[in-house]
From TrEMBL:
Its EC number is 2.7.11.1. This is non-specific serine/threonine protein kinase. Pfam families: PK_Tyr_Ser-Thr (PF07714). Residues 78-358 form the Protein kinase domain. SUPFAM superfamilies: Protein kinase-like (PK-like). One of its GO terms (biological process) is defense response. GO terms for molecular function: ATP binding; protein serine/threonine kinase activity. Keywords: ATP-binding, Kinase, Nucleotide-binding, Plant defense, Serine/threonine-protein kinase, Transferase. The keyword ATP-binding applies. InterPro entries: Kinase-like_dom_sf (IPR011009), Plant_Ser_Thr_Prot_Kinase (IPR050823), Prot_kinase_dom (IPR000719), Ser-Thr/Tyr_kinase_cat_dom (IPR001245), Ser/Thr_kinase_AS (IPR008271). It comes from the Eukaryota.
Length: 444
């Protein structure tokens, strides 16, 4: 961390209590950036940086400036009982703020993040986050409420996201598993957040898009967090930003890793990785798996365009409860996002539109329905009705008839032979019959 940057900022906020002017009501919360958003690179690297420069950049942000004592009070002196987790920036604690802490501050739970002085991130990343979230507002970006810059201490205060990160829901099995519709909702929300950053007046490249940086509110609405590695997009005739390669293994685009050339399409690749995680329930990189399956993209991408193979990589936790057509379309979106040629990857706004068409398909199960043919009603009497019901469901879900499973009854045998009569699978057997009268029917 350059000493001239630190000296320019130490003590400037805790004492001066600089409060920007309230944001104009004409500015919608999802509008693009403020008209004159300051450059991240200029503010974080300039040797001429002054307190006035930063306060000017935050005009209209409505950020609160907290003292260290105030944040200790709201977190019970950063008690372990308030501990939420820890990332590259540092530990995070839950707190509660109201007007007693700061006049005009809405009563609400908050997440207080402390910069770890020995961590991988530092003052520059803290400053980038204050600048970015102080000037940008969107429903799919986590809201920064305020910050603290006192002596060597750097803290950030966010809105509290009660459901934590996408990572814990996908990969920590003690959490309730995410159904198909919720996964789509999260993917669309995260895509909207990225699209907003890419289309801001001064483009922002997120650079660290991953499951752990997607936070979820009580309704599973996705919001992007951790903007310490964000960079301004290329300007003028420049096609990319040259920067030191940073990010998380498994998520970074291959061209960025090889050349250090960063573009918005690098974020698109990372989004494709997360979409693949949502589809498969697997981590981007997992050393616990066989060698050929450790890198999720290398293992799964070749199978995304083959409907027969796709069925084998979908997260088994979904238990076939998802739209088969929707899964195919989502897989195609991921496939294009993961293209090794950056220019052929889609824009995030197009990804949002494509995912919304998938969401419109609903959550019609690809997988299972149950019916009962009871002895009391007579199996032969019910055979026509059962046949009609099964056939309708098969046609509705576009399933493969050769995977039909029915009860062990005479009428069931005639049904399975009848349905296979016009099937192209070449079935010539007697059917696979289950022993119970009430059984699960596998829809492809």
């Amino acid at each position: 961390m350059p000493k001239f940057v630190l000296k320019a900022l130490i003590g400037c906020y805790g004492k001066a209590k600089v409060r920007p002017q309230p944001r104009s009501r004409k500015c919608a919360p999802h509008a693009s950036s403020l008209p004159l958003r300051q450059s991240l690179s200029n503010l974080s690297n300039s040797s001429l940086l002054s307190p006035e420069d930063l306060s000017l950049s935050l005009i209209g942000s409505n950020l609160f400036v907290f003292s260290l004592a105030e944040l200790k009070a709201v977190t019970d002196n950063f008690s372990k009982n308030h501990f939420l987790g820890e990332g590259g920036f540092g530990p995070v604690y839950k707190g509660y703020v109201d007007e007693k802490v700061k006049p005009g501050l809405k009563s609400q739970p908050v997440a207080v993040k402390l910069l770890d002085q020995d961590g991988v991130q530092g003052h520059k990343e803290w400053l980038a986050e204050v600048i970015l979230l102080g000037q940008l507002r969107h429903p799919n970006l986590v809201k920064l409420i305020g910050y603290c810059c006192e002596d060597e201490h750097r803290l950030l205060v966010y809105e509290f996201m009660p459901r934590g990160s996408l990572e814990v829901h996908l990969f920590k099995r003690f959490f309730t598993f995410l159904p198909w519709s919720t996964r789509l909702k999260i993917a669309i929300g995260a895509a909207k957040g990225l699209a907003f950053l890419h289309e801001a007046e001064k483009q922002v490249i997120y650079r660290d898009f991953k499951a752990s940086n997607i936070l979820l509110d009580s309704d599973f609405k996705a919001k992007l967090s951790d903007f310490g590695l964000a960079k301004d997009g290329p300007e003028g005739d420049n096609t990319h930003v040259s920067t030191r390669v940073m990010g998380t293994h498994g998520y970074a685009a291959p061209e960025y890793i090889m050349t250090g050339h960063l573009t918005a399409k690098s974020d698109v690749y990372s989004f494709g990785v997360v979409l693949l995680e949502l589809l498969t329930g697997r981590k981007a990189f997992d050393k616990t798996r066989p060698l050929k399956e450790q890198n999720l993209v290398e293992w799964a991408r070749p199978q995304l365009t083959d409907a027969r193979k796709l069925d084998q990589i979908i997260d088994p936790c979904l238990d076939n409860q998802y739209s088969y057509e929707g899964a195919q379309k989502a897989a195609q979106i991921a496939y294009h996002c993961l293209n090794r040629k950056p220019k052929t990857r889609p824009e995030m706004r197009d990804v949002v539109k494509a995912l919304e068409t998938v969401e419109d398909l609903g959550e019609t199960p690809k997988g299972v329905f149950v019916f009962t043919a009871t002895p009391e009603t007579g199996e032969e009497v019910n055979s026509r009705e059962v046949y009609r019901e099964v056939k309708e469901k098969l046609e509705k879900h576009h399933v493969h008839l050769h995977k039909l499973r029915l009860p062990r009854t005479t009428s069931a045998q005639s049904i399975i032979h009848g349905l296979h009569k016009n099937c192209r699978c070449g079935y010539r057997g007697k059917g696979v019959l289950l022993p119970s009268l009430s059984s699960r029917h596998s829809l492809g």
